[in-house]
Amino acid sequence: MVYKGKIKISKKRRVCKFSGCGHILSIYNPASYCHVHQQLTMMQAYSAPLARR
Ligand SMILES: [Zn+2]
Question: Is residue 53 part of a domain?
Answer without folding.
Answer: yes
